[in-house]
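job 3f2a | input accepted
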Amino acid sequence: MTITKSYLNKVMHERKSVRKYDANYKIPQAELKELLTEATTAPSSSNLQPWRFLVIQDATVKKELRQIANNQEQIETASAIIAVLGDTEMYKNDEEIYTKNFEQGYMDEATKNSMIENSLKLYPNLPKEILKNIATFDAGLISMQIMLLAKDMGYDTVTMGGFNKEAFAKHFELADHLVPIVLIAIGKAAMPAYGSSRLALKDIVKFI
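job 3f2a | predicted structure (208 res):
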């Protein structure tokens, strides 16, 4: 059996990292909300969904952010910047999440109670660095979904990890449990993105 060249496959190959945007194009906020709602179908550790978002559309704020983000042009010219944050206290939502799973018929009550109990035994006792690693991993999963969904909606994106995270947290007055992880610029491309090569499968995979 071979991989069918599906629509998803097409979107995956068409998605490129775009750095030149039409500064006059504005994505309606309703579409950004729809995009993020769909993206939250991404998997996460224990389904605790530690991602949080700060969506920056205001021109003045984007100009301020550009100074924090190594003067990258797309910070100002993209329609919006989606800052993906990780919540290291994600376990505080466990009762809400698992109760909703129970109410919607995804698990029985015994499983719900067990999940809540096990979560509260494990996560609050983990070092913050491990909680940050968990949140970072899950942020990566949802970030990829955001970019693929954006392409499906006709928009272009680029992820940026190169920014001063301490300065970002201070500037936007983030609570201590919120960790800035990545910035995603989204908008309409003003110029095509560069293509990029990939390493050969034989150099990155070993079957045993």
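job 3f2a | The first strand starts at residue 51 and ends at 56.
job 3f2a | closed
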